[in-house]
């Protein structure tokens, strides 16, 4: 039997599970709607159990929606914690999987794991300090500093930074239940839809919505650039599937920086500095396989 790794991208609307060893070697994959934890985790376990008939699964990695507890030394490691998603608060995801399979479980935020995927096989190969941002239903950010996935007190919540909001230009009050017009509140997919009356994918490229959206995305990106000095900014998520917005963001970022960051990477090459994920929508599930590989290595060293 061949040895493979399990990867789970646990999202608020769907779970993607795969077994394999990397982007060129995915042996099986399944997509499940996110229902209750009992139903969804039950189906996840059924999928991996069926795969175990053909493969030896050496470890499983989880890229989870959050907030989560990613601290391996914590009593609630691998929990989805205070999420507003009905039924999912305080769900012990990692422990449930460990109990079912008895293999090492890696667990981190969806964005940190997508960052790991891009670092392993995508746009961030060879870099040690970079950020991965998802701009979709929510806004979240993860990445690496000095070669380590970003953690800390809990984990970064980059989507909830405050950005300037010109109420005259944009009287919309924002979607965030905690802060109203934080970055996520002004620039996530639901804000785009509510403000303009149609979802992003139906707004044509020349629509004024995109200039404002690029302005907001750039405000968040420049703040993050100032704070962590990333060598690369990867922008993924549903809103960023409208790729015509990238040039607008490049322009806005350069104009907001106003020449202050004196790196040729930004001054001359901003279009290869702020980029879509090289793995497309697969950074999360492939990153989860990379996280499983790490979890096995960590377990072998201890
Ligand atoms: Zn917020």
TrEMBL record:
<comment type="similarity">
    <text>Belongs to the ROK (NagC/XylR) family.</text>
</comment>
<keyword id="KW-0808">Transferase</keyword>
<dbReference type="InterPro" id="IPR051804">
    <property type="entry name" value="Carb_Metab_Reg_Kinase/Isom"/>
</dbReference>
<protein>
    <recommendedName>
        <fullName>fructokinase</fullName>
        <ecNumber>2.7.1.4</ecNumber>
    </recommendedName>
</protein>
<dbReference type="InterPro" id="IPR043129">
    <property type="entry name" value="ATPase_NBD"/>
</dbReference>
<keyword id="KW-0547">Nucleotide-binding</keyword>
<keyword id="KW-0479">Metal-binding</keyword>
<keyword id="KW-0862">Zinc</keyword>
<dbReference type="GO" id="GO:0008865">
    <property type="term" value="F:fructokinase activity"/>
</dbReference>
<dbReference type="GO" id="GO:0005524">
    <property type="term" value="F:ATP binding"/>
</dbReference>
<keyword id="KW-0067">ATP-binding</keyword>
<keyword id="KW-0119">Carbohydrate metabolism</keyword>
<keyword id="KW-0418">Kinase</keyword>
<keyword id="KW-0460">Magnesium</keyword>
<dbReference type="GO" id="GO:0046872">
    <property type="term" value="F:metal ion binding"/>
</dbReference>
<dbReference type="Pfam" id="PF00480">
    <property type="entry name" value="ROK"/>
</dbReference>
<dbReference type="InterPro" id="IPR000600">
    <property type="entry name" value="ROK"/>
</dbReference>
């Amino acid at each position: 039997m061949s040895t493979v790794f399990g990867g789970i991208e646990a999202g608020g609307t769907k779970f993607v599970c795969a077994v394999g060893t990397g982007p060129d070697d995915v042996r099986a994959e399944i997509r499940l709607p996110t229902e209750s934890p009992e139903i969804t985790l039950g189906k996840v376990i059924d999928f991996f159990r069926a795969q175990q008939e053909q493969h030896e699964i050496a470890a499983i990695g989880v890229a989870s929606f959050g907030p989560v507890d990613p601290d391996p030394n914590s009593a609630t490691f691998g929990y989805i914690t205070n999420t507003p998603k009905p039924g999912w608060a305080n769900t012990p995801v990692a422990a449930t999987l460990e109990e079912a399979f008895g293999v090492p479980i890696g667990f981190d935020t969806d964005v940190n794991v997508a960052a790991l995927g891009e670092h392993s096989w995508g746009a961030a190969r060879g870099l040690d300090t970079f950020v991965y941002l998802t701009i979709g239903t929510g806004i979240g950010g993860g990445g690496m500093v000095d070669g380590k996935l970003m953690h800390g007190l809990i984990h970064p919540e980059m989507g909830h930074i405050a950005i300037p909001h010109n109420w005259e230009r944009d009287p919309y009050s924002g979607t965030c239940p905690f802060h109203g017009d934080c970055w996520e509140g002004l620039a996530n997919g639901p804000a785009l839809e509510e403000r303009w009356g149609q979802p992003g994918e139906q707004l044509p490229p020349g629509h004024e919505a995109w200039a404002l959206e690029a302005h907001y995305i750039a405000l968040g990106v420049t703040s993050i650039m100032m704070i962590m000095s990333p060598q690369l900014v990867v922008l993924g998520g549903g809103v960023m599937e409208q790729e015509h917005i990238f040039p607008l963001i490049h322009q806005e970022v350069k104009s907001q920086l106003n020449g202050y960051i004196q790196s040729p990477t930004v001054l001359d090459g901003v279009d290869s500095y702020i980029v879509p994920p090289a793995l497309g929508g697969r950074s999360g599930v492939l990153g989860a396989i990379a996280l499983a590989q790490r979890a096995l290595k960590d377990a072998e060293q201890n």
